[in-house]
Design goal:
By secondary structure, the chain is mostly helical. 59% of the residues lie in helices and 4% in strands. It contains seven helices and two strands; from the N terminus they run H-H-H-H-H-H-H-E-E. The chain starts with 9 loop residues before the first helix and ends with a strand.
């Protein structure tokens, strides 16, 4: 029977986190730029030659990178929101009377997709989730009943009861 491997101490974990945070990563800037400019995460990873597992590890270990990644995702949400507006502007300016309904339908679908992508990238600002607030007051009435005494008992002055 073999023993399980020892878990690293907190000091070893802290030293590893510092080493991860201090490691040079020249591919971060192009990756974050690509993400914030509308390139999908998968394509941005392929452009710089990174694996998603590596980025996930960096997100868990490096707070600075996590903040940069969050800002890049917010930039991606802004990019998709702007794209939705551009699609609508394009639909208005390029409508011809002959096929107007088909063109507008396609552009509407593309705009809805762009809004959805913005909501996926930043749910707080562009998501479809509705917040409903409710204020409810609950009144609770508690009534206490006297304990029932058996009719065959009578109290004695010292706090005890006798049976009749």
């Amino acid at each position: 029977m073999t023993k399980p491997p020892k878990r690293p101490t907190k000091r070893q974990q802290a030293a590893k986190a510092v080493a991860v945070a201090d490691a040079p990563r020249p591919e971060i800037a192009p990756f974050l730029d690509a993400v914030s400019n509308g390139v999908s995460i998968r394509d941005a990873l392929a452009q710089v030659g990174l694996a998603w597992g590596t980025v996930r590890y960096w997100l868990a270990q490096d707070e600075v990178f996590a903040g940069q990644y969050e800002r890049a995702r917010a930039g991606l949400a802004d990019w998709w929101a702007d794209r939705a507006g551009d699609i609508l502007d394009d639909a208005e300016s390029n409508v011809s009377p002959a096929d107007a309904s088909a063109y507008v339908a396609v552009q509407k679908a593309r705009s809805e997709y762009a809004r959805w992508r913005a909501g996926v990238a930043d749910r707080k600002r562009y998501g479809d989730k509705q917040t409903i607030e409710q204020d409810t007051t609950l009144r609770v009435v508690v009534e206490y009943a006297e304990p029932e005494r058996k009719p065959t008992q009578t109290p004695i002055g010292d706090g005890t009861w006798t049976s009749e």
